[in-house]
Every structure is written in structure tokens, then in C-alpha cells.
Specification:
Two copies of one chain form a homodimer. Chain A is α/β, with parallel strands linked by helices. In chain A, 47% of the residues lie in helices and 13% in strands. Chain A has eleven helices and eight strands. In chain A, helix 7 packs across helix 9 and helix 7 crosses helix 11. The first copy, chain A, starts with 6 loop residues before the first strand and ends in a 19-residue tail after the last helix.
Chain lengths: 285, 285
């Protein structure tokens, strides 16, 4: 028995699909909503791939359970129908403030009064969204990381209007579905992980941009000096150079924009996107 | 046969003693210089402890070799005698610019013309010292980390006047004595490791200072998110909270000085100094 019995996930993109699958894989029926039939068809395909990726990762013995889990997900293109019985709605739509505010305004009307809303936004703060929800006391951020099933974190961050009881129930639910809950006491752009990762990666980028050392040397120094399995450029390759580029290009800091240009000129324009493309700072496979 | 046959280490403090021992342990006779007989007596005691620490770390089977290595170290209080035949002088005296410039001015006269000088300074740049050496082409930084013998890094950093051939010989020597050489192409305050570590630790400190999350939560997030064995507060405990305090207190950044005050008030004043005292952010043993 999980803390929330009826859960709806809005948005069936890469992470939305993983969130729905992770919840279903812990025995909960999930409604997955996306905008139209094409999006739902894509989501079904994504779910099939996810079962393959998951069983490839955790072992064939888990295939039947994963298929049963996938079967617990129902797809909807009608928002009102998708959330009619929801105790918890997790929103994982694209990172666009107006889009999110618009969907919360519709949710505010469509969902029952008791429903808790959680945004998976990486870059927006819940306080930027809360007034559009009609229920700021039952609204917070619940932020998942890619490859959810790998004993991964779920960062939980409320606003100053989030009810402490709602916050604790979402922490408990994160634990119910196999996540390691990371409760934040205050709003913090980037949550905990990206608040550490962004300056760390920027420091590595700075050493390469200024010609102090090459990526391999920087990574080796970090691995030996701290015992970590990966230095900043190995992490860049996992994050993906397009994502790193987008974050750096959006920054006000001139050094960050130089780094975006450097990534574009030396890697992205040559199809080197990191692990996903088989080559980034390093070659894979 | 190492790249340099006769090596003198100036300063027989914690790191100076480890450097002398590491070199001697790779078959090279080392002269260890310190200011007076009391300092030399302390250095002999330190060397005895080092042999214990080293054999405790790498195994009793290495005790005889470690004792032989310790026997290859000769102690001097006369600078001219200590460096008369030196091919390489490694300077590991306290981090004080005037003190270092003064010792290099004396070295410039006492050492043979061919002798290469290397500073182990963590915080001063070799360009701040080079004109006092009388031989800027044969002068650079060779920076060791604590617990030298643990397959550790030696960061090598020249000035724009360092001869490339001298630079390469020092890189080769670092490898000769079992270090992983980290060559820097330019001067960089903090070398590679501290250039990554300082902003990373500052980011962790910021999350705790602003009350976003507690140290354990921050560390757990980093460990899970990156697979590293240690988060920022585990690293603070290893570095030592007095060292962390000294670095933060010396900074121009108000956030860093707040962190220094926080460390003093909550940890250092209560004798919690990190791993060395048995307790810091965590308890040990």
C-alpha cells in the first residue's frame, strides 16, 4: 500500500514514461496523460523500449514483472478523465513556464480538491507556478533523475506555502516507489544535485577553456584525488553535450557562454554528443 | 636510475618528510634540510612514525624496505652543505612568500648552477617566486598531496620562463618516484585538484549555510547522483576543518567568510576537527 493510491503522470516523454513505469512497477495503477493520439502512440513505444532497457539493466528474471507493470499504465488524452480520481498528479511536461502554468490552471478545475500536485521541473521553481494551481498548500516539486530504477534520488522541494503534512506524504511516497528521498528545507534552483554539479562542471570547463589542462588530465586528477569513478568530462559525456550546451548557453556568465561555444565548435557540430552518440570527450564501445 | 640522482628536500615538516621518504623509497639518496637541531630531531621522530604509518597502510612485508629507505635520508642544518651536490632541490618550507623568497635567494648562491629548484607550495604561484631563484628557467612547482605513497598525484606547473626540457625532466622524475604526474600547461592558482575542489566544497557549504539541506543529505545526494564514495562534507572531514577554516577565512568572498565562522562556531571550537580528531561532520571509529 503506497501513500497515494491513484497517481496520474502528465507528459509521457522520456522522464514522464520512466516515472509512470517506476510507480507501476511498485504495484500502483497509473494514468499517463499526453496531448494527442500521436503522443500516446509514441509513449506506448517508449514504454516497450523501457521494459527492454530495464530488463537489460536489472536482469531477464524481472521481465514478466516489468511487463505486468507496463500493463498497469492507462493512457489518456482527456485531462479531466486522466485526473478524475487522482490522489497525486506528477507533472512532467516540457520546461516552459507558460505551458506549465496553463496546464495547472486546467488541473485546478479538473482534479478533485484533495489531489496533490507535484512538478518534476528541473529548472523552474515551484513558487513560480504555485498561484496557477489553485492549491499552493498541496503543491510542491518532486524531481526525478534519469534511469529512475537505479536506486536513484527523488528531490522534494516545497514553497513556503506547501503544507508540511503534504510534504511528508510525498517524501513517504518517494520511498514507497523505491526512490531515495532528498528533502530540501527551502527552494533552491538546481535542487541539491545540480547545485553541486553545475559549479563543479564549470570549474572543469574553465581549466580546459583557459588551456591549463586537457580533459583527460583533469578527470584523472579528480579520480585519484577523491576516489570518485568519474571526473567532470566523464560526467559531461553522461549528461550529454547538448544538454550541457543548452544550460551553458542560457547562462548570464560569459565563461559559461564561451563553454557553450566551445562545445558546439569542437563536439556537437561533429556529432559528438557524449555517451548517447558513442563519442564525446571520450569514445564509447 | 631516476632522472635526478641527488635530491635535497628543504623543510622536514609533514609533507617535507613524506616527500623525502617517497624519494628514498624509490632508491634515491636524499638530503633533508631544516633550520636547526630541534627541527631535525622532530624530523627524525616524524620519519619513524612515517615508517609505521606506511607499513600500516601497505603491509608489514614492506617494513624492512621502508627502514632501508629511511636510512637513505641524511639530515642537514647547513643549507650550503645540504645542496652542494644537488641535481634537484624540492622546497617544502612554510607557505610564506617572504620566507620562500629568502630561502631561494640563499639557494641561488649555495646550489650548483645546474640544480633544478621545485616548490611544493599549494597557494603561491611560482611566478611570485621565480626572480628570487636566479634561475627562472630551472624553476617550477612540483606539488604533492598528503599520503604520497597511495598512488597519488604530483602536479607540475611552470612559469612562462621555465625551460620545457626542465619541465619534462621533472614530469619524468615524478613518475620515477611512483607518482601520477599531472602536467599543467599554464599557471593556475590551486593547480587542477583544488581548482575543482574549492568551488565544489563551496557549493556544498552554501547549501548548508542557507539551510537548504543538512550535510548528510547533501553527501548522500552526491554519492547516489555521481557514484562517488564521498560527498563534500566527507571530504571536508578528510581535509580537516582547521585547514578548511583557514582557506575560507582568507577569502574575499563574504559567503566563504560566513562558512569560516560557521566551522569555528559549530565544530572547531568544540574540538571537532574532522577525521584527525575523531569527529567533524561525522564521527569516526
Amino acid at each position: 500500500m503506497t501513500t497515494f493510491s491513484n497517481v496520474t503522470v502528465l507528459g509521457a516523454g522520456v522522464l514522464g514514461a520512466q516515472i509512470a513505469f517506476q510507480i507501476a512497477n511498485h504495484g500502483v495503477a497509473v494514468n499517463s496523460y499526453d496531448v494527442d493520439d500521436d503522443a500516446i502512440a509514441a509513449a506506448r513505444g517508449r514504454l516497450t523500449s523501457l521494459v527492454e532497457q530495464y530488463t537489460g539493466d536489472v536482469g531477464e528474471a524481472h521481465r514478466a514483472a516489468a511487463q505486468t507493470a507496463a500493463g498497469r499504465i492507462s493512457f489518456f488524452t482527456d485531462l479531466a478523465a486522466a485526473v478524475a480520481d487522482a490522489d497525486l498528479v506528477i507533472e512532467a511536461v516540457p520546461e516552459n513556464l507558460e505551458l506549465k502554468r496553463d496546464i495547472y490552471a486546467r488541473l485546478a478545475v479538473a482534479a478533485p480538491p484533495h489531489t496533490v500536485f507535484a512538478t518534476n521541473s528541473s529548472t523552474l521553481l515551484p513558487s513560480q507556478i504555485m498561484d496557477s494551481t489553485g492549491r499552493p498548500d498541496r503543491f510542491l516539486a518532486l524531481h526525478f533523475a534519469n534511469h529512475i530504477w537505479r536506486q536513484n534520488t527523488a528531490e522534494i522541494m516545497g514553497t513556503d506555502q506547501t503544507s508540511p503534512e503534504v510534504f511528508q506524504r510525498v517524501v513517504a511516497f518517494a520511498e514507497d516507489i523505491g526512490m531515495v528521498p532528498i528533502p530540501l528545507h527551502k527552494e533552491q534552483p538546481g535542487y541539491v544535485l545540480n547545485s553541486l554539479l553545475v559549479p563543479f562542471l564549470a570549474a572543469g570547463a574553465g581549466l580546459v577553456l583557459t588551456g591549463v589542462a586537457d580533459p583527460e588530465t583533469v578527470d584523472k586528477t579528480w579520480r585519484i584525488g577523491t576516489g570518485a569513478p568519474a571526473g567532470p568530462f566523464q560526467i559531461f559525456d553522461v549528461v550529454g553535450l547538448r544538454t550541457a550546451h543548452a544550460i551553458s548557453a542560457a547562462s548570464d556568465d560569459p565563461g559559461s557562454r564561451m563553454w557553450a561555444d566551445y562545445l558546439e565548435a569542437n563536439y556537437i557540430s561533429q556529432g559528438k554528443l557524449g555517451v548517447e552518440s558513442g563519442e564525446g570527450f571520450y569514445k564509447y564501445r
